Structure formats: C-alpha cells, structure tokens
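haha ok so turns out i had the wrong file open the whole time. this is the CORRECT one, sorry everyone. sequence first:
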Amino acid sequence: MIKRELNDNEYNEYYARYINKVSANTNLEIGYKEDEKMIIDFFSSITDEKLAYKYLPEKWTIKEVFQHIIDTERIFMHRFLRISRKDKTPLPGYDQDIYIDPSEANTKSIEELLKEFSITRSYSKNLINSISKENLKNMGFVSNSPMSARACAFLLLGHSIWHINIIKERYL
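then structure:
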C-alpha cells in the first residue's frame, strides 16, 4: 500500500499535519522499517545530558517525547487492529499529557526506551503485514471522526517525523 492511495476523507484534518510529513511514494511496510531505523539512529545519537533536557519547564524531556512516540504507536496500532477487523465501536481520543508522569520515562535508560520501542515496532510491523490491502481500507470512528486502518498506520510514520523535527528545532 502506497501513501498516495490514501484519501483525505479517511482521517480528520487534524491528523493531516502528521500524514503530510510522509512522502506520497512511501510504501507502508518499507516505511515502517525505514522509520524504525531513523528513530533508533536518532535517539541513540543523543547524549544522556540532552535526553533529560526540557526547553521550557512545562515541556517534556526528550526521553518523555520518545516515550510519547512509543505510547502513541501502541494506541494507534490498537485502533488499527480494531478498524481493520471491522469493529465499528467508536474509539475515544486520549489525553497524551496524563500518560507522561506514570510512564516514568525519565527513570529509564535510553537502552530501555530503545528496547521498548523496538518491541512495539516489531508488533506493529507484524500486524500491518497480516492485514490485507482490502482490510486496510476499512473505516471506523476515532475521536468522533471517520478514520481508516491505513490512515492510523501512515499517521504514525508522520508522527515520529513531527516529533523528531521538534526535537531538532527546540532541544538540540
């Protein structure tokens, strides 16, 4: 499945800021492998001192941003699974901010976070590869808006790019 096959009516316009970060020619399966390498290389290259840095007191540390990327992948893959299986139960949004403190991201080493990400990504790639092209088009409701399974998957690729760009601009 190629990103250019995705239609604007398959997701809420709020998510366009993430989805539009992904090249139109991106193949979903290859994109997840390339994105995984990019994320691992990027976070592995940051010093321990910088991983604990916040550019403003109310903002997250880089470790917390990484944990957010991991948690968001878990949530959207849950949505992806349910939508791809034709579950029409409306799925709620989530408050990303309340996830940060109990995640205890700042107590984890970068190696622990990288392992957590790699395990999560392995699950995601396996799940994506198990869904037919036809079922990737299935539609559900997320945060009171229509969303396709494939939009959930492409959104995550753009979500990591979005946050890595913010880290580069504001943290490093």
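The first strand starts at residue 139 and ends at 142.
again sry for the mixup
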